[in-house]
Design goal:
binds adenosine-5'-triphosphate, alpha+beta, binds magnesium ion
Length: about 325
């Protein structure tokens, strides 16, 4: 596992934002990725920004590298299930992808009932909801309980600044976001991706609790997996060996995902509205450590942190691979 000193030192050199000159590229700066769209390609720089409750909070050392390389791992592992958009990974923080027309529905799959955000299944269940995204839920479920089978709980992809909303299959179709045939085909792919994700994670002693997939249409109209796959931003990960005991005694699960930061904020009264509490460096270091731990445990590979100034390194790599003019 990475040395805490390396993480502390990198606090000063995190990748907060980029501003590369790709000529006529259209820029889209999301909460986490800086996107440069050039014709049929999208150059995605995964920064070290962390967002929670749809608000960008701070940066975490090496978070961008973790996310980009973890997605790379999963895109490779899942390409027999879903056609994906990846073309090239010219730098640890950068993916060049086919630019797809995004489908405005996020395919969320949940194996357990948990979560603290308003779109999460436990949040709603705790407040009395016994139906979620069209699924009937039995009485007596407890927080973090395993669902009898994984549930698909789609959410709409909100415009920038607005919050996503959980929806049922029927609502997706009624809103005209997808036809029933399209929905069912993508739902089937999502369930297969989740099943494989859980299987690979389980071999590593990790539970893939839930996750979110995004899809788009490629230049030939083919449904394509985009964005990121099975990262600590898009998924929850718990430890298998401590799960039962913690669940039985009603304790918090050991988390290696974004929930650590969400919980830290929620404990201080922040759930998306009002001023964001300032996140101290020790919390940033601990969160970074968990992201790296997730990478190593889930992929079974050692994380090779590339320390130093990421902006210059990325620029040089983009020039070397011919994406950027020197
Ligand atoms: N291959 C692709 N083709 C088209 N769009 C993509 C592709 N891969 C990712 N995207 C989109 O690019 C954006 C990635 O940036 P980022 O992850 O920072 O956004 P976000 O904060 O999750 O979302 P938002 O757009 O709401 O800010 C997302 O909107 C994602 O849907
Ligand atoms: Mg995103």
């Amino acid at each position: 596992m990475i040395d805490a000193e390396i993480l502390k030192r990198q606090l000063k050199s995190t990748l907060e934002k980029t501003n590369f000159d790709f000529g006529k590229a259209k820029k889209y700066f999301g909460k986490v990725r800086d996107n440069y769209i050039l014709n049929d390609r999208r150059i995605m720089v995964t920064t070290d920004r962390i967002s929670a409750f749809d608000v960008v909070l701070t940066t975490l050392p090496f978070k961008g590298q973790v996310l980009n390389q973890m997605s790379q791992f999963w895109f490779e592992k899942t390409k027999h299930i879903a056609n994906n958009a990846v073309i090239d990974i010219p730098d640890p923080n950068v993916t060049v992808a086919r630019n797809c027309k995004p489908i405005m529905v996020e395919f969320v799959v949940r194996g357990y009932i948990t979560g603290v955000t308003t779109t999460s299944i436990w949040y709603n269940y705790e407040r009395g909801a016994r139906e979620f995204c069209g699924h009937k839920l039995p009485e007596g479920l407890r927080k973090d309980q395993k669902l009898t089978r994984p549930l698909l709980t789609p959410s709409t992809k909100a415009e920038k600044g607005l919050h996503d909303e959980s929806v049922s299959r029927a609502e997706v179709i009624r809103k005209g976001l997808l036809t029933a045939e399209e929905f069912d085909k993508i739902a089937e792919v999502s369930m297969k991706l989740f099943e494989l994700g859980q299987k690979i994670a389980a071999k590593q002693g990790i539970i893939l609790v839930d996750t979110k997939y995004e899809f788009g249409y490629d230049e030939n109209g083919k449904v394509t997996l985009i964005d990121e796959v099975h990262t600590p931003d898009s998924s929850r990960f718990w430890f298998s060996d401590s799960y039962e005991e913690l669940f039985k005694t009603g304790k918090e699960q050991m988390k290696i995902d974004k929930e650590y930061v969400r919980k830290w904020l929620a404990d201080r009264g922040f759930v998306g509205e009002g001023p964001v509490p300032k996140i101290p460096d020790d919390v940033r270091v601990e969160a970074a450590r968990r992201y790296i731990e997730a990478y190593e445990l889930v992929t079974g590979q050692k994380f090779r942190a590339v320390a130093g100034n990421p902006t210059e390194r990325i620029r040089q790599n983009l020039i070397k691979k011919g994406y950027l003019r020197g």
